[in-house]
């Protein structure tokens, strides 16, 4: 059971790190809008990448070039 | 253009609503063809422009992703010039923060309907050259933008947002608002600390409690208790200081609030635990302290968020006066100036549809002003040169040039504001149920603790300290402190989903205990706009023929009567006829038009009389309606009766509120006949008409002698009564001042939600009492056990958690409506 003398202080150190991270997150405004980010994930921000892919598709009809 | 023919040239049937804003299409003239061959239809050029801007920016995804239609878009071109004023250094100083060569500002957005709007605005702003970053806060509907001044100006950024069809104005970050934001973040930090360290404390406590059963080495238990104490210290001193400060403030003011017994419980629990720890014997309560702090801070955080949202709502509403006015200089050149900088004697230009910025005398132009928000009068008042206009009223017909007579503190609006301040000062304070219970309860607990100590000192002095502390800790009024905030939090969010936004925490209590319901007429019980209720026609005249001509004559006018007639003609599926020459407008009287059939006049009875038109006497028996007549040459051929129609749900709501046991009253500033007829329609027996704002307030205050008054209104003339009533509810489309001074807002403008709110408030009151009763019962059970000295710490911990949990779960029932 002597292991608890290592594990419990370790847990306390860990939670201190977590609390620090939380306070940093609050300070940097990450909790100011609790509704927006949940919705934001639903919108595609990768339009440019999608266009690139369709470009590739059209070139697929041509004989593949070694890259 | 014929409506039917235009819809046949696409394979798909034309939609009946605008592609952009989903409002009903009046015709299919405005449309844009798509690359895929489809056609989109729009209600107005503003919406078309907004949709094209969105398409040009490659953001069409917005239309696929949105969950609610966009607001109707204004054509932005006219406002560009005015926006330039915001680049003026004096204006910038108020809104813009400059760091190096980057500037930052917050913009208030109007019309944000769903998350897709947020996405759209963010993306469009970020793609603008010179913008460093942009982010939209969906909750407060504010956009934060950073940009480089040498590349783009603030006015351009605002123009960009406007071109998407949203309203925008800079957000003035004053000290009070900044303080509110910091306080909110601060509370969240304390809550997080309590939660995270509290988890550790509980983890260790559970190990110790289990050890009590299965056996634990003394040194292990002691070690765990020490670590538990260590992690509880930040919770106690950092998170708990909120309660200590509150308790100290209350005691200094010789009051006892909930914070006092809470602090007492926390301090005694910590002291007892520390002593046990040092003596290596006796109970420790660290887990209880942490959990207690966490629960209470959660409740407080939720409460603050409700309050914060109320302030956001008030901020978001456009104020009664326009931000900018058009001043004419000596050479008749127009300059946009801030309304706050106007001085007496300024000559101002007010285009049709704009709000009048100052009390003034009309110099030139004939028009009609809509004062419905100020006086409750539903029909615009005609004005001619030399006549007076009041700041806050809306110019409906034609451009006016006016000379400002009073500005600032002396103006009619400011006087209303003063009346309102007096009213809110006289408002009966909302009873603090929990506060009262708490103060009695804590006095009782102290007595019991003292009695316990004395008893044990006499019987067995070694037990005295333990037992007294156990009483204080166990009676920790956790459940009691949670009883009210948890119920109110749940009820508030449930009501918000149904369109009732509570702005003050006490609103529910007051709603539950209201005995009288007072309503305003125009805009509250009625729709606030005129519509044709009845039409009389001369012999041999066909309704369709009349409708075609009315549509032609009244298209393009913004006068409420003209809008009502035009909508009526639209409903008859009228199609325009050809005019010979221009329409001749006689502001406040009517319109003259030459057609193939002859000379048509459409206007008031006086106007037609003055032109020598013969009008049948039976037509003039209008009762409470307004009249509009159509004549062909010297013959009156049609008579329209116009009324401000009651809301569809008004009668039903009155019955529901009456059924809930509230007495109904109707106090209006409008004319006698109009009020009488509405009262009869919706079923209100006690009504008074032609009341001035201060008379209205007096009547409300007189009613208040007899019991709580719920005041429902929308206009500036109601603002004072709203502020003075026990509990006030404003319509969501009402004047900003009315909204700011009310306890609740019907966000969807749906009266039916009102009855729901009253019933739900009563249910909330019931559940709060259940919670309080339960908390007291728990204490009645636990305290004797603690006093008798055989309550184990783990029992106290389980008891306290369970009692709190039951309170929280009971309150969760309020989520259902």
Overall domain count of chain A: 1
Please give the alpha-carbon distance between the first and last residues of chain B: 49 Å
**Basic shape of chain A:** elongated
Number of helices in the DSSP assignment of chain A = 3
Unreliable stretches covering 5 or more consecutive residues of chain A: 55-67
Work out the helix count of chain B. Answer: 29
Mean pLDDT of chain A: 74
Shape annotation of chain B? elongated
Low-confidence stretches of chain B: 1-12
Amount of helix of chain A:
55-70%
Portion in helices of chain B: 40-55%
Tell me the fraction of residues in β-strands of chain A, as a range.
under 5%
Structural class of chain B: alpha+beta
- The structure class of chain A reads mainly alpha
Number of strands of chain B: 29
Proportion in β-strands of chain B: 15-25%
What features would you describe in this structure?
The complex is a heterodimer of chains A (67) and B (817). With 67 residues, chain A is an all-alpha fold. Chain A has one domain. Chain A is built from 3 helices and no strands. The longest helix of chain A has 24 residues, at 4-27. Chain A starts with a helix and ends in a 7-residue tail after the last helix. Mean pLDDT of chain A is 74; it is low at 55-67. With 817 residues, chain B is an alpha+beta fold. Helices cover 50% and strands 19% of the residues of chain B. Chain B contains 29 helices and 29 strands. In chain B, the strands form 6 sheets. Chain B has a 7-stranded mixed sheet, sandwiched between helices. Chain B is elongated and about 110 Å long. Chain B starts with a helix and ends in a 5-residue tail after the last helix. The interface between A and B is medium-sized, with 27 and 32 residues.
